[in-house]
Amino acid sequence: MMGWCGSGACRALAVLALLFPLRERGCWGLSPSSGDLEKSPHSDPDPWEVLHRHRRSWVWNQFFVLEEYTGNEPLYVGKLHSDVDKGDGKVKYVLSGEGATSIFTIDENTGDIHATKRLDREAQAYYTLQAQAVDRLTNLPVEPKSEFVVKVQDINDNEPKFPDGPYLAGVPEMSPLGTMVVQVAATDADDPTYGNSARVVYSIIHGQPYFSVEPKTGVIRTALPNMDRETKDQYVLVIQAKDMVGQMGGLSGTTSVTVTLTDVNDNPPRFTHKNYQYTVPESLPVKSVVARIKAADADIGSNAEMDYRIMDGDGPGMFNITTDEDTQDGVIILLKPLDFETKSSFSLRIEATNRNIDSNFLSLGPFSDTTSVKVTVEDVNEPPLFSTPLSRMVVSEDARVGTSIGRVSAHDPDTTNSPIRYSIDRNTDLERFFNVDALSGVISTAKALDREVNSVHNLTIFAIESKDPAQIGKGITLITVLDINDNAPVFAIDYETLLCENTMPGQVIQTISAVDKDEPLSGHRFYFALDAPVAGNLNFTLRDNKDNTASILTKRGGFKRREQPVYRLPVLIVDSGSPALSSTNTLSVRVCDCDSDGVALSCGAVAYTATGLSTGALLAILGCIITLLVMVLLIVTMRRRRKEPLILEEERDIRENIVRYDDEGGGEEDTEAFDMVTLRNLNVIRDPSVRRDVTPDTPTFFHYPTASRPPYKSLPDNVVFREFIWERLKDADVDPSAPPYDSLQTYAFEGSGSVAESLSSLESLSTDSDQNYDYLSNWGPRFKKLADLYGNSDGNGVFS
């Protein structure tokens, strides 16, 4: 059986327990009946029996270790001992579990347990370990493994903390004594079940005498009644939490609490003045702001909102007052126009009242105030005013130029009573139909009027002060033009009348109506009749329907398109005006071939030619065919001519010609395939008898006599070119085989006046040159061929 003892007195008891025989009593007061009985000390011990005996009971109590041990030596925790251990060193103790070997160590011989590191209860409050006694030689257990707990005993090493701090709180102003503001709470990491390390009490360090705190609960309350926000609206408190029930040596922590006094409506509005005076010009527009007044209220927010009203005044309906919701100003608005000459001042009495009144503070009222406002009207130089802002006049359409239509009148509203001059705004009378007398204001016609063009004229009349032309009044005059009968009636539309060949006599073929630009007061009444020359015709008649319409009827049947395809019927229309006006309108009636339902199939004249195409159409088609044939022939001819060259490839300088031949030759050394002298000779021309527009099979050359023309190289450049061109021109003129149309022949010739002479490599071979090309031999194998061609002075080149 194994037992343990802790530090201190228990350690002494453990030593004493080793001195007594274990047969009669177990360690730490455990009776033998609690475990298996040991053998007699006189009998030989059987080691196998010892290893396989039943598990004995442990005697355990928890180990306790103080946290934050600061000693230099390992902290003694306790001692383990087994009754199997006879002190002969055959038993050793083994420790395992949380912190074994890293925090806790055990003396394998004595069973003493020590803590080698500082322990923090707040990090880990206890450790669970396993202890076992084993045979030192075989490492076989002599006792079963069992667990025990090492608890870390708390000390006061953590100060209280406010996890929710700092705090913000509010309390209404004027609150009674003891009104709760906020509750603060501090926590202590120490063990609340051991001692007073975690027992916290609260106190107020800063914030007295306005507030207090309950020591146990942390509830903050008001300590003074009727605190006024308008005097001081914010307080900063410092609250302390101290452990050890506030005793000396306890640890403490603090936090701040910002308390704001919230507003209540405890202040009535008050005007800063009992009388206000404002001056406004009489020209102030309606709906304009006359003045702004404000009643002061020390409250804020909704507690400072107020309503204004005009209680009385000598200008009813002239003004109104509203509240500016942003500034809580009273805004006085003008409702009617001001007139200095009529009334020069107004007196108003205005009241301001709190909108939200708290019944708890009615004793501080009344929550309203009144003031007087005097509005003085300032005289300004006003523009003239028309007696009638809108004048209406009428004039006959046939009024002569200069006819008076009416009169406008305006006056100066100021006391100066300045004379007025009148004029028409020509933007409203662009064609200048009217004039106005500048002094009297009489409006008269200036041009002939036409109601059908413009029936109403809207004129703007200016009234201008003579003393101050900048003051201009405006009036509107509407002139209505009265109608006269000056337009004859005409057909309402352009009628298209169709008459079927099978129409019967007395059949209505068209109903006509009329329109008139005039507008008589009694309405239109039109009369219809056939014009006198055709009134007795045998084909058609007209019937007036007495409703401003008339019907056209046939007198006979059997109309034929071949005989007459179209009939012209003049119709006389007369209006009911005074005097009556009339007009003759022609109605065209076309004879048509119709089906059995009377639907026109074809109208107009019938062709008398035989069925088929007309002669004109046949001639047109024939002309088109001939034109197409001519165009085709021209195209074919042009294509054939393009296949044969018009001009032979003219004679050119040897430096611009490419000679092609099919003989492969003997390479660069072969000079038998062509005659280079012929190519280089500028004095050789082609035979004039050879055509220049075809390529000859075998070109022939001849030389002009030397006496007739000097060689080109002996002439100056300008003469050389001129002679060369003239020779070619003569050849083209006398050539009987040349094409009978203009041709372009190109000649290229460098001339003989250049210091460098010809740049052609072919020409340079036939001239005597002083140029030494021996240096080409020094340029390496790549230039060997050039050195062979040009470097030998004996002339044994490829063209020599």
Secondary structure layout plus pairing:
Layout (H helix, E strand, L loop, with lengths): L1 E5 L2 H11 L27 H5 L11 E4 L8 E8 L8 E7 L6 E3 L5 E4 L10 E10 L10 E8 L13 E6 L7 E4 L17 E6 L4 E3 L5 E4 L11 E9 L9 E11 L7 E2 L3 E7 L7 E5 L1 E2 L9 E8 L5 E5 L6 E5 L10 E10 L13 E11 L6 E2 L3 E7 L7 E4 L2 E2 L8 E5 L9 E3 L5 E4 L10 E10 L6 E11 L7 E2 L5 E4 L7 E8 L11 E4 L9 E5 L4 E6 L11 E9 L7 E13 L5 E4 L11 H29 L32 H5 L3 E3 L14 E3 L13 H18 L26 H5 L18 H7 L10
Parallel strand pairs: 2-8, 9-15, 17-24, 26-33, 35-41
Antiparallel strand pairs: 1-3, 3-6, 4-7, 5-6, 7-8, 10-13, 11-14, 12-13, 14-15, 16-19, 18-22, 20-23, 21-22, 23-24, 25-28, 27-31, 29-32, 30-31, 32-33, 34-36, 36-39, 37-40, 38-39, 40-41, 41-42, 43-44
Descriptive overview:
This protein has 800 residues and is mainly β. Among the domains are: 92 residues, Immunoglobulin-like, CATH 2.60.40.60; 96 residues, Immunoglobulin-like, CATH 2.60.40.60; 109 residues, Immunoglobulin-like; 98 residues, Immunoglobulin-like (Sandwich), CATH 2.60.40.60; 114 residues, Cadherins (Immunoglobulin-like), CATH 2.60.40. It is 10% helix and 32% strand. The protein is built from seven helices and 44 strands. The strands form 13 sheets. Strands 35, 37, 40, 41 and 42 form a five-stranded mixed sheet that branches. β30 and β31 form a beta hairpin. The chain is extended and about 165 Å long.
